[in-house]
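Q: I'm a student working through a structural biology exercise. My instructor gave each of us a protein and asked us to get a predicted structure, then write a short paragraph describing it. Mine is RING-type domain-containing protein. I'm not confident about reading structure output yet, so if you can add a plain explanation after the tokens, that would really help. Here is the sequence I was given:
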Amino acid sequence: MEETTTTTIVMAALSTLTPPQITTLTTTISALFRHHHRHLSSLLSSHTLFSLSLHHLHSLSLEQKSLLIARHLLSILSQLSHLLQPTTARMPPCIATILNDRDLDSVLLLLLLCEQHQHEPESLKTLSPTDWRDSLSDYVATTMLTLSGIGFSRSEILMKYIEVVAKCKKFVDVMGSRDGKDGKEVAASVVAVVALPSVQVKQGGKECAVCKEEMRQGRDVCELPCEHQFHWMCVLPWVIKRNTCPCCRHRLPTDDVYGEIERQWELLVKINGTYA
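A: Happy to help. First, here is the predicted structure for RING-type domain-containing protein. I'll explain a few features afterward.
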């Protein structure tokens, strides 16, 4: 049920894009999938690299694996949410969207193991971990086009994108609920706060929603992307603790991975006029 809802929301969001935006997204996604496929190919062709990545995976707790998948989801989801935001409302990207090579290898291996287990449940059970590389290599060889996006049409690339988002989000939602991460307050990203504009109050009489005092005409104040304005000294302590507007709860980017996923997902839901 959750995966169906996720798929519906992403498809509805895609339907709001213009043809040039669709072209940009499919080009970006196709390049991203090719990059992932090259990493997988290197991983599966090197016994040493495979062993190191597998050992790293085994050393991670379930919560750490969940965080790894969440960061992977965020890096993929950001491609779409970036296009859906008006140019004037775009904020600097969350630093959590950047995966180093070791983390990318680990999450791609983890997702590949999950995928093969889903399609061939007995294939890995009967083998020792030292033989998993050959089994995974055979599996990838038979699904190369699916994993790389090579030779796929625009619609097929987008469907693959939706599939990856849905699978990762389902896992992240389950782990997030289990660990009590839903709805927690998170600080706004420092980069996003620094990028907030300072504007002059054009007309007196408005009050700052934080201190309830008037913002005098001609005074420099902070304006959030939702266009609500506040005294700088009032809003800064606020965004250090939470990434929401004091008036409308519009979310600023955050460096908390789960909080940023929630922010970007709310954007998709809001644009579609649907509710998760």
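A: Here are two points you could use in your paragraph. Residues 19-45 form the longest helix (27 residues). The chain has two domains: 2-183, 190-241. It's a good idea to check both against the output above yourself.
Q: Great, thank you!
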